[in-house]
Design brief:
Elements (H helix, E strand, L loop, with lengths): L2 H9 L5 E4 L2 H5 L3 E6 L9 H16 L4 E6 L4 H12 L3 E7 L8 H8 L3 E5 L1 H4 L5 H10 L3 E3 L9 H15 L10 E6 L3 H13 L4 E6 L7 H8 L8 E4 L12 H14 L8 H13 L8 E6 L5 H7 L4
Parallel strand pairs: 2-10, 3-4, 3-6, 4-5, 7-8, 7-10, 8-9
Antiparallel strand pairs: 1-2
Helix pairs in contact: 3-8, 4-5, 8-9, 11-12
The chain binds pyridoxal-5'-phosphate (PLP).
């Protein structure tokens, strides 16, 4: 067994499925359960771990000890990658959008404490992050290094996210649920949405996957999904682009209030950038009687709770 596989079996656990009780759900005759991927591991949580798992196994199989990826100054992906590199003995560099003063923020302080080297680049350079010439230059500057795209979204992310579905199929009988009718996730780069779609095609073809876009003008993601999952059909999924609340990282008063009330009611911690925004959208859809009576809904808690410290520092939440 490889080092990663040994540590995986010791430290990374199946995330629980938690039933939610709320008068709105009862009134609309729907059930809601939350797949608590925020609880996968104390520091490598949520969809970040799902997307990293097979990338790290691939790097290990190739004998590559150095990792490099990209992210913003408060990035959940950068934080999780630094934690994973620490746990699995990789060297890691983060190319960070913005100025060096961000190095002392809660996300990047922790990433450095885990051993990540940071390289700050201006916004113009950062926009080159997926361009072949820039990547070729990085390959020269960082030899023998495994490059992971921003947010961890690539073909190796898909099998990791698919495992959410195989776990759910084992868990739903305990909840006396025969079939998941609707599955919700927050959507940024659409890697998680794509992996879930790929998973339902394999294991749960009657489930419709809904991605709540957290960015403004996210319609382009409708083209990204078929690139990652060529056999996806519109029967399997839908992207909702109208719930961005003003754009990425924007926290409206209504969204902030929803998150606080949801946590007070369920004791489940959420943040407003991803899971909070997704649940707020789901709540509005339930209020608008979008789902047939008797529907079983599952929402994936994709983690991101490390971002709360940065949001507090910026007085956004
Ligand atoms: C906590 C959290 N949830 C959801 C997402 C969205 O995932 P994806 O980029 O795969 O759409 C991200 C990252 O982008 C995230 O950090």
């Amino acid at each position: 067994m490889s080092l990663i596989q040994t540590r995986l079996s010791q430290q990374i656990t199946q995330s629980p499925l938690q039933r939610i009780h709320h008068p709105l759900l009862t009134a609309n005759k729907v059930t809601l359960s939350i797949k608590r991927d925020d609880l996968i591991h104390p520091s490598i949580s949520g969809n970040k771990w799902r997307k990293l798992k097979y990338n790290l196994l691939n790097a290990e199989a190739k004998g590559i000890k150095n990792l490099l990826s990209f992210g913003g100054a408060y990035s959940n992906h950068i934080h999780a990658l630094a934690a994973a590199a620490h746990l699995f003995n990789f060297n890691v560099t983060g190319i960070i959008r913005g100025e060096a003063h961000y190095a002392s923020n809660p996300t990047l302080s922790q990433a450095q404490a885990w051993g990540m080297q940071l390289q700050f680049v201006d916004r113009k350079t950062y926009r080159l992050k997926a361009q072949q010439d820039y990547l070729a230059q990085l390959a020269l500057d960082y030899p023998n290094t495994y490059l992971i795209p921003e947010g961890g979204t690539n073909a190796f992310a898909i099998p990791g996210v698919e495992e959410v579905i195989s776990e759910l199929m084992q868990q739903i009988p305990q909840h006396k649920i025969q079939q998941i009718d609707h599955l919700f996730t927050a959507t940024g780069s659409a890697g998680t949405l794509s992996g879930l779609i790929s998973g339902v095609i394999k294991h749960s073809p009657n489930t419709k996957v809904h991605g709540i876009a957290v960015l403004k003008n996210a319609e382009y993601l409708n083209q990204v999904v078929p690139e990652l999952v060529p056999n996806a059909t519109q029967v399997n999924w839908q992207l909702h682009t109208e719930f961005h609340e003003g754009g990425y990282g924007k926290v409206s008063t209504a969204l902030a209030q929803f998150c606080q009330q949801f946590t007070a009611h369920t004791q489940i911690p959420i943040e407003p950038i991803y899971t909070g925004k997704m649940l707020f959208a789901l709540w509005q859809m339930i209020e608008q009687e979008t789902f047939a009576a008797g529907s079983h809904i599952v929402a994936v808690h994709t983690g991101g709770l490390q971002g709360l410290a940065g949001l507090k520092e910026q007085q956004k939440f």
